[in-house]
Amino acid sequence: MRIGLVLPEITESYLTLARQIGVDDIVTTLRGAPGAQPVWEFRPLMAQRQRIEEAGLTWSVIESLAISDTVKLGLPGRDQEIENWQRSLRNIGAAGIPIICYNWMAVFPWLRTSFTTRVRGGALATSYRHELMQRGPLTPHGIVPEEQLWESLAYFLRAVVPVAEEAGVKLAIHPDDPPLSPICGIGRILTHPDAFQRVIDLVPSPVNGITFCQGCFAEMGADIPAAIERFGRQGKLFFAHFRNLRGTASDFSEAFHDDGDTDMFAAMQAYYRVGFAGPMRPDHVPALEGEPNDRPGYSLWGRLFAVGYMRGLIEGVEKTMGTAP
Questions:
Q1: Theoretical Cys-Cys bridge with 5: which of 23, 120, 173, 232, CB 3.0 to 4.6 Å?
Q2: Cα dihedral value 250, 256, 262, 266, nearest 10
C-alpha cells in the first residue's frame, strides 16, 4: 500500500515535507497545463517527473488530464480534442507516469453547496444539500440525458483505450460527486457501483479501470468493503481516494478521516484482502484552526492529519493480517 499526496505546489519544501511524513507518491497535474495548451508536451512532463523523483518520491498519478464538455457531451469538434488527448496520453506514457485519473462530470465538476460547514472542533468542511442545488435554473445546455453521456463515454474510450495500452498508462475513472442525476438538468452516470462495471465492460482492457473514491461510494450508500472486493478482485482498482463523510448523496458533509460514517479500518482491511498495491491519497479534509480555507477540501494541515491516520491504519492491518501487498 502506497500513500500519495496532492501538494499545494511542487516545491522543494513541500516535497521534503511529503517525504518526512512517510508519503511515497505524488498525485498532481502538469503545472500550468490545464486550459493553457491543447497538448501536454513530453519535455515539461519529464522535467516535473525528474524533480519529484530526485526528491525521493514517485509521480504516480496525473489528476487530471482535463476532458472538455465538447467531448463529454458529444458535440461537434470532439474528434480534434480527443486527438489532442491521445497525443498528451502518449507523452505521459513516454514520461513514465503510469496512471491518469479522469471523470465524466459534464458541465458541473464536483459540487458543494457550502464550504464552511462546521465539523469537529469547529473545523470548516464542504457539504452538499441537493434540495438547495435543485432550486437553480437549467444550464444553457438544457436537458442532457444520461444515455447521451454513456454514448459519448463509449466513443471516447474506444478512441483512447488502445492508445493507453500502447503508452502503458492506466485510465482510472472517478465517480460523479455527488452521485446524483440529474442536477439542474444535467445527467450524471457514475452514480452507483453497477455503473462502474458497465464502464469496465464497455471497452475491456487491462488499462480501463477505476479511481475508487470512498467518499463517493459512501455517498451512494454502497457497502464500502464489498465494493472494494468487487472491483479489486477484477484487478480494476488502479487508484484510491481515502475519504470519510457523514450522510448520503442528497445531504452530506465531509468529515475528518476518523470521524465519519465509514468504517475506515474495515475499508483498509478490504484493500489488503484484494492485494491492492496502487497509490491511495487522502481526499477532502476539513480546514483546521489557524490555516486559510482558500482551497476547500484541500487544506494542508488536514491532509497531514489524514496521512498520519492512514499510516496508523496500515500498521494495524499489517499486524493483524500479515505483510502488506
A1: 23
A2: 160
Q: How many domains does the chain have?
A: 1
DSSP string, 278-306: SEEEE--BPBPTTS--SSTBB-HHHHHHH
Pairwise CA distance, residues 4 & 120, whole Å: 25
Range of the domain at 105: 4-321
> What pLDDT is stored for residue 37 in this prediction?
62
List all residues 6 or more positions away from 145 whose beta carbon is below 8 Å from its beta carbon. 187
Inter-CA distances, 234 with 34, 163, 216, Å = 32, 22, 20
Give the pLDDT confidence of 105-164 residue by residue, as tens digits.
999 989 999 999 999 999 999 999 999 999 999 999 999 999 999 999 999 999 999 999
With b meaning 16 or more CB within 10 Å and e meaning fewer, what string describes 100-119? bbbbbbbbbebbbeeeebeb
Distance CA 100, CA 81 (A): 17
Instruction: Assess contact for 225 and 266: CB atoms under 8 A.
Output: yes
Rounded Cα–Cα distance for residues 7 and 310 (Å): 17
Place of cell 466513443: 155
CATH number of the domain where residue 44 is located: 3.20.20.150
